[in-house]
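Protocol step 6 of 9: fold each sequence in the batch and record its structure tokens directly after the sequence line. For illustration, a two-sequence batch is reproduced in full.

Sequence one:
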Amino acid sequence: MTETRAGFVALIGEPNAGKSTLLNQMVGAKVSIVTHKVQTTRARIRGIAMHGPAQVVFVDTPGIFRPRRRLDRSMVKAAWGGAADADIILLLIEAHRGLTEGAQAIIASLREHAGKTPVALVINKIDRVKAEVLLALSQQVNESFPFARTFMISAEKGYGCNDLMDWLAAEVPAGPWLYPEDQVADLPMRMIAAEITREKLTLRLHEEIPYQLTVETEAWEEKKDGSARVDQIVYVARPGHKGIVLGKSGETIKAVGQAARAELAEFMGRPVHLFLQVKVRENWLDEAERYNEMGLDFRDGDA
């Protein structure tokens, strides 16, 4: 009988380095929201990929950056927590941005946090630069830290991802699988549903309300016909934001609801009836309950 293997792989890097895109590519399903905006991943989202006899559990951490607010501090703490608990760490760097100040700061912190955990360098978005630039960047970054391996990929297009997956499957510890074979994420569906709606809001609103909103799944009802009724609340921090989220004659929230419902139905493989409400909650950024809903620890935001 073939020996099974299983382990956790933490994806770390600056905001927008492509961690969520890589997670979705590896798992083969959309479990982490991906937008053109930075800082969309708030909780540590686990995506589960099967590769031969190995089960590789990816932890998509929030991008590591200089925290300013309580929410920022909680997110950065969650990112390092995800790295500390992992069997393997993958540091993602964007090929076209090179070894930025932010990436250098993460590498410096890796020396403290990594310890005996193997760290592999993943240079992403390789389709944006020439080969000689890539090779020079790889050499430069490898001189700054003893990486176990270096992989050059395009998470969006899938280039190089098979080689990375082969290596991870061979490197995770021998042992029984941690989750059922057909499971793609260990997040409850209520949270995945909230993340999907938040992604649609983020895409629709662009710069108008960057991170001043959150979505919570308030109720989930399984219907006899196999469909699900999902009730969600969009919390905004200011009264003026409510009108922006609703849009003229409710057009914005209606479009968001349609897009979120369609994606959720596709993800679940059955009909979904989604109902959205928008509420003003001026201090939600300072409420422990909201952080728990996002999978973050409120206390980690203490200055």
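Sequence two, same batch, same settings:
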Amino acid sequence: MKILLLNPNTTKAVTDLLLAAGRDAASPGIELIPQTAPRGVPYIATRAEAQIGGAIALEILAERHREVDAAIIAAFGDPGLFGARELFDIPVVGLAEAAMLTACMLGRRFAIVTFARALGPWYRECIEMHGLEQRCAGVRMLDGAFSEIAEVQEEKEALLVELANRAVREDEADVVILAGAPLSGLAAKVRDRIPVPVVDQVAAAVRQAETLVALKPRKATAGTFRRPDPKPTTGLAESLASRIEHRAKDNGSGREDSHR
């Protein structure tokens, strides 16, 4: 089984963190294929940046979806997730949705703990997008700057643990999610210092992707996530334009190869 681990920002060191955490969680025989966005921002922290990252994620998926069995959009906030589910036949998993749904299986309410205050509005809207407001105890964010995005978990580890424990005490969180791609892998390091389950976002996403592939769901041909009807495009990346326009790719049978 091949799973595309798609980092929609431009920092390869963050992709390396995602890949290491994902490999620790993956079942034997699972191949994680890392992909860093070729353009965009070093890390996504705002609504505008999420829109940019989501568009780039759709382009990458259009280029690579036939190579893999599933894909993970590896930014907490899930930029481009719903659009990807419309356009592509493979299961596409979002980091935030996978972490939150996993947390819902471990407790009544979860808290999201992250490393920058700028992320708060976007994360709150992501919670609403997934219909999980009633299950969220709150979003806790650190104040202050950090040195390097790929080193933020090491630099801020003690403060993040303190913030997580405050979420348990003050917000009555049953589960904590350490959120944001640069915090990938941190849950395993600090789990014994937080008195409730701590969800690693990448581990949750990898396992959810594995499960969806194993379940072999059909692509919807009705409902809100059916593939949109074809329409002409102007100026889009060729692979994405081809997908939107329903240009057939011959798989030897004269039919469009919608997956591999």
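Proceed to step 7 once all outputs are recorded. Observation for sequence two: The two ends are 12 Å apart (CA to CA).
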